[in-house]
Amino acid sequence: MPESSETDATVTIPARMRAVRLTGHGGFDKLEYRKDVVTPRPAVDEVLIAVGACGMNNTDINTRTAWYSKSVTQGTDAGGSAGFGEAKTDDSTWGGGGVAFPRIQGADVAGTIVAVGAQVPASRVGERVLVDPWMRDAQDPGNRALAGYLGSERDGGFAEFAAVPSVNTFPIQSPHSDAELATFPCSYSTGEYMLTRAQLSAGETVLITGASGGVGSGLVQLAKRRGARVVAVAGKSKMEAVAALGADWVIARDDANFESAVRAAAPDGEVQVVADLVGGAGFASLVELLARGGRYVTSGAIAGPVVDLDLRSLYLKDLTLLGATVMPVGIFESLVGYIEREEIRPLLAKTFPLDRIADAQNAFLRKQHVGNFVITLR
Fold this sequence. Notes:
Elements: E1 6-7, E2 12-13, E3 16-22, E4 31-38, E5 46-56, H1 58-65, E6 108-116, E7 128-131, E8 134-135, E9 148-149, E10 161-165, E11 169-171, H2 178-181, H3 185-197, E12 205-208, H4 214-225, E13 229-234, H5 239-244, E14 249-252, H6 258-265, E15 271-276, H7 283-288, E16 290-298, H8 311-316, E17 320-323, H9 331-340, E18 348-353, H10 357-366, E19 372-376
Parallel strand pairs: 12-13, 12-15, 13-14, 15-16, 16-17, 18-19
Antiparallel strand pairs: 1-2, 3-4, 5-6, 5-10, 5-19, 6-7, 7-11, 8-9
Helix pairs in contact: 3-4
C-alpha cells in the first residue's frame, strides 16, 4: 500500500496501522505493540475489515507459550506468563507445525468492511460483519488438513485492520456492540461444534466443565438452546453467574465429593454427554459418569493434556471419545443466526485497549472472570 492514505466512502485507510505482533514463543515481552505496521491490502477474493474489537482466548496464549508442542505435558497456566522452556518450535501450533513470526494474533474479529478485492462486490463495503476464523481451502473446504486459523496461520485481528477471505465474513444485524459481538466467534463456534459432534439432543443431560470461561459459558447457553439439561462445573465464586446463564445444576469444581454430587444432580445418576475443556486429573471421573453409549467431547485441556483412561470403561460402556477443532462449513453461519434471533447472549467480562494486551492476558490467566475478555480498537 502506498505511504499516502487511501479513502473509501466512510473510513480513511492509512498506509500504516497500530497492531500487536507476536515476535516469538515466550512471555509477555513477545507481544510487541507498534504503530507502524503496514496496513494489509485485500487479495482479489478478500475484504479489508476495520476491526472494531477482537476477542481474546486460550489459543492466543497457547500459541505464544508454545503449549501445543507435544513436549509440553503441563496445564496451560503453568507457562502462561513465561512460556514453556521445554517446548519445541516445529510443533508449536494447534496444527502441529510452527509459527511464521512476526504474527498478528486475534481470531475473534468484529468490525466493518472498508475495502474489497477485485472479485468481491463493491456493495459489501460498509457491511458490519463477524469473521469465521477457520480459513479453509477454496477448492476443498472440507479437508481439515488444509485448514488454517486466523491469528495462527495468517494475521488476525489484534490490529486496526485485517484482510480475510470474503467467504469468511458474515453480515450481522444486532444491537450488540462490537466488543460484545467479539465474544462469540471462537468460543461459541467451538462450543456449537462440540455439541454437534457429540450429537447432543433435547432431553439429554450434558456435563460441562470450565463453565465460567468463554467456551464454557457459551456451551451452557448452546446446550440449553438445544433443550438439554445442563450440569455445569465452576469455581465457587462463579457458580451464581453460571446458574444465571441457564444451567440446571452448578457444582463446585473442587467439591470433595464431585462424582457423587454430579450423580445426585443428573437424572438416573449419569450423563449422556460430557463437554470437557479442562482435562487433567479429573478426566477419569468424567468418563465414569457417562451413561452406556455416552459421548465425551473435548476442545481444551487447561488442567493438563495427558490423562488416565481405563479402557474397560471405554469399551464395556460403548463410549465414544471425540475431539473438536476444525469445524465444518455451516456452523458459523448458524451461530450468526442464533445471535441475530437473540437465542444466545454475549458474556463480556472486560475490555482492554490494544496497547494493554499483556495486561489482558495476565488478567485472563488469573481466571477471576466469567465470560470473555475483548481487545477494543475503536
